UniProtKB/TrEMBL annotation:
Keywords: ANK repeat
Gene name of the record: Ankef1
Chain ranges passing through the membrane: none
Database matches in InterPro entries: Ankyrin-EF-hand, Ankyrin_rpt, Ankyrin_rpt-contain_sf, EF-hand-dom_pair
Organism: Anhinga rufa (African darter)
Pfam families from the UniProt entry: Ank, Ank_2
Name of this chain's protein: ANKE1 protein
Length: 590
């Protein structure tokens, strides 16, 4: 193909590799057998940053391929508006037609790319205007290249400017010209002086280097790199809102950063564990009639063991995969490990409603008061998803009944939101605070009125009316202050020891009799071992059968059906129906 490494890196869009090759002296204007350069491949993929680097290293963005296409044709074919704008400003002819007699704007129109076609229309108008004889070039090619080059080499230029800095972020005109002339070889001395004079007018003492990197002094605004960003819609002007604004709650990002995610020695995150797969062959093995003896089970000889699969531990918790969880915990995976969404296995089990997994995790020592990024505890998840039996189990294990979430919402408020009277009644009896308020100043009764469940409203009103009155603090003031005894009144150690009862005096340890001898095992005797060698017992072959693979016991069909029946009965008793959804998952039709 005649392609270089730079072309392939530009085609794949690997920014750091393109930069590294150009820094080491790769020729940016080489082309392959079809006369495609690195700029063609970058434009075809819509890689704007790579086009910037190619322009900074004197790349020709107007090269014509064998099919007559320029990089602008490929950018228009993909509908990349920013790439079309950049290539058109950096010297590519927008009126050039390929072998199919099509301009870049015609190609963009055929593809239905309105934004790209609009940019190409502006570029054509500017190109035709500046092509007229005697027309002044607003953005010279050398100035555009100097701007792209200065942004790409900004770090090196800043270090050079710091050496001649006057102390206020400015450099002298002569120093500025010498630094640019030394670093940038493609700009002549007259052009550098022109740039220096443009920047010297605003600061009499010197040239501000920050303004030089902005490029607004010698280029128009639409050529600057800031004009290629996404433009936001302007909001409608209106009256400013008076009064105190609500304080924004500092909610962290809902995904753990890769740098903060703990990893194992093999590079996998800790929450990714190995899933034990069921590779039973239904043609040879029946789960309802398992093999009576390991010798009869010959599956391991004709079944290929699959590759290892690593899954999120919370996925396996929801599926109830006890074997994978047990293997992970035996290998040292923490029980309270959090996935990238800050959820622990206990939270996932409470949200999914798997009581057996919750009980298993509690036996393993899971933290019942662990919190996620929204400060929700496992009790919040259990109450919000309507699992009464799990809530009872967690509270019995020591969960905080009034644990506040990030908006100070308690599990009681989450139970009120899903209108579960039984969970509300249980939490109140467990000691939940009815008068607790969230960050909006609403208590449990206010939230119940919003969700309009008359049963819960009546229950809360009855509990609030029957609250015991808080006793006054007078009794505490009348309590006598007990003075500590002075050191003189304390009894000496000898006197206290004399007054101890005989039963409290420690008895001396009874020494072992010297006559007692430690009994040695017969197997440790030299005579016994010598007799075994003479009799040939040590030369016997071990014919103990070791199966090639020990299979995990599989549940029979009757057990699986019974499990589903129990699960359906449990959800029915808890008040779940097929149309049950939490408030966050409900869709309101207008």
């Amino acid at each position: 193909t005649g392609r270089t490494a730079l072309m392939e890196a530009a085609r794949e869009g690997v920014l750091e590799l393109v930069r590294g090759l150009l820094e080491r002296g790769a020729d940016v204007n080489l082309f392959d057998l079809e006369r495609h350069s690195a700029a063609h491949f970058a434009a075809k993929g819509g890689f704007f940053e790579i086009l910037r680097i190619i322009s900074a290293y004197n790349g020709d963005l107007g090269l014509i391929a064998m099919n007559g296409n320029t990089p602008l044709h490929y950018a228009a074919e993909g509908g990349f508006a920013n790439c079309c704008k950049f290539i058109g400003q950096r010297g590519c002819d927008p009126t050039w037609t390929n072998l199919l007699t099509k301009t870049p704007r015609a190609i963009a129109k055929e593809g239905g790319f309105k934004a790209a076609a609009a940019e190409l229309r502006k570029i054509e108008d500017t190109f035709i205007k500046q092509s007229k004889p005697g027309a002044k070039e607003d953005n010279p090619r050398w100035a555009l290249r100097l701007y792209d080059w200065s942004l790409e080499h900004q770090t090196a230029l800043c270090k050079a400017f710091e050496a001649v800095d006057q102390g206020d972020g400015t450099v002298a005109k002569d120093d500025f010209i010498s630094v640019i002339q030394k670093q940038c070889a493609f700009v002549d001395i007259e052009q550098i002086q022109t740039i220096a004079e443009m920047h010297e007018g605003s600061h009499a003492e010197g040239i501000n280097t920050k303004e030089f990197f902005k490029g607004s002094r010698y280029l128009q605004k639409n050529c600057l790199i800031t004009s290629f960003g996404a433009k936001g819609k302007k909001g409608k002007k209106g009256r400013k809102r008076r009064g105190k604004r609500s304080i924004a709650i500092p909610v962290p990002i809902c995904v753990v950063p890769k740098s903060a995610c703990p990893r194992r020695e093999d590079g996998f995150p800790v929450y990714m564990i190995e899933a034990i797969q069921s590779i039973a062959d239904s043609y040879h093995v029946n789960r309802d009639h398992p093999s009576a003896h390991p010798v009869h089970d010959d599956r391991a000889w004709y079944i290929d063991e699959p590759r290892k699969i690593y899954m999120n531990i919370n996925y396996l918790v929801r599926a109830g995969d006890f074997l994978s969880l047990q293997k992970a915990f035996e290998e040292g995976v923490p029980v309270d490990t959090k996935d990238k969404y800050y959820k622990t296995p206990l939270m996932a089990a409470c949200a999914s409603g798997n009581v057996e997994v919750v009980r298993y995790l509690l036996e393993k020592g899971a933290d019942v008061n662990a919190t996620d990024n929204f400060m929700w505890t496992p009790l919040h998840h259990a109450c919000y998803n309507g699992h009464l039996d799990i809530a009872e189990l967690i509270v019995k294990a020591g969960a905080a009944v009034d644990a506040p979430a990030i908006g100070n919402a308690t599990p009681l408020m989450r139970a009120i939101e899903i209108c579960r009277l039984d969970i509300v009644y249980f939490l109140i009896n467990a000691g939940a605070d009815i008068q607790a308020t969230n960050s909006n100043g609403k208590n449990a009764l206010d939230i119940a009125k919003v969700f309009a469940d008359s049963r819960i409203i009546d229950l809360l009103q009855n509990k609030l009316e029957n609250l015991p009155k808080v006793p006054e603090k007078r009794e505490a003031e009348k309590e006598k202050v007990v003075k500590p005894k002075s050191a003189s009144t304390l009894m000496p150690v000898e006197v206290q020891a004399v007054k101890k009862e005989p039963s409290e005096i420690p008895l001396p340890a009874v020494e072992k009799s010297v006559l007692e001898k430690t009994t040695h095992s017969l197997k440790d005797s030299v005579i016994y071992l010598n007799s075994l060698i003479i009799s040939g017992a040590t030369k016997r072959d071990n014919i103990t059968f070791k199966p090639r693979k020990i299979w995990a016991p599989e549940a029979a069909t009757e057990e699986l059906v019974r499990k589903q029946e129990l699960l359906r009965e449990r959800f029915t008793l808890d008040g779940h129906s097929e149309s049950f959804t939490t408030p966050f998952n409900r869709k309101v039709m207008e």
